[in-house]
């Protein structure tokens, strides 16, 4: 078996861009409408949590929103698509904290399953 492992590192600036893209999606209801002031990463029970501060119009205080699990992954994949970074659908994906940012690790295996090789005589 052949396994490919690829890691994509997201800085704090990239996380902020990912959250802004995610918050602009019409169907999402996790991040309220407003200006994304900051995005930072913490750990809760060994799992990454993306903490977002949102300035809603007319509000005097910033609102805290926490994303975890699949919501973080959705925001990261959205940014990768915008920047044309290829993400295989069939890859197993994990997200972990790396410094002040996140790392998305992709595991791809069994490339030859659906590939037919053709032998040609020289």
General description of the model:
The radius of gyration is 18 Å and the shape is elongated. It has two helices and six strands, in the order E-H-E-E-E-H-E-E. A hairpin with a 2-residue loop joins strand 5 and strand 6. With 122 residues, the chain is α+β, with helices and mostly antiparallel strands. The chain has one domain (3-109). The chain has a three-stranded antiparallel beta sheet.
Q: Which strand order does the major sheet show?
A: 1-6-5
Radius of gyration, taken over Cα atoms and rounded to an integer in Å = 18 Å
Give me the strand/helix succession: EHEEEHEE
C-alpha termini separation: 29 Å
- In total, the number of strands is 6
List segments where confidence is low: pLDDT < 50 over at least 5 consecutive residues.
114-122
Q: Which band does the percent of strand residues land in?
A: 35-45%
State the helical fraction: 10-25%
Assembly state here?
Answer: single chain
Largest sheet: 3 strands, antiparallel
Counting DSSP H or I runs of 4 or more residues, the number of helices is 2
Gross geometry? elongated
Structural class: alpha+beta
Structural domains: how many:
1
Write the layout of secondary structure elements.
Layout: E1 3-10, H1 12-23, E2 35-44, E3 47-55, E4 63-68, H2 70-82, E5 92-98, E6 101-109
Antiparallel strand pairs: 1-6, 2-3, 3-4, 5-6
Please outline what is shown here.
The chain is an alpha+beta fold and 122 residues long. Helices cover 20% and strands 40% of the residues.
């Amino acid at each position: 078996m052949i396994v490919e492992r690829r890691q994509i590192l997201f800085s704090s600036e990239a996380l902020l861009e990912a959250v802004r893209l995610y918050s602009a999606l019409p169907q999402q209801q996790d991040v309220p409408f407003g200006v994304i002031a900051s995005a930072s990463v913490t750990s809760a029970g060994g799992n990454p949590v993306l903490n977002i501060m949102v300035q809603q119009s007319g509000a005097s205080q910033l609102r805290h929103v926490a994303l975890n699990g699949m919501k973080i992954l959705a925001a990261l994949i959205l940014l990768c698509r915008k920047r044309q970074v290829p993400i295989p659908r069939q890859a197993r994906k994990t997200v972990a904290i790396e410094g002040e940012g996140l790392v998305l690790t992709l595991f791809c295996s069994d490339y030859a399953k659906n590939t037919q090789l053709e032998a040609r005589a020289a």
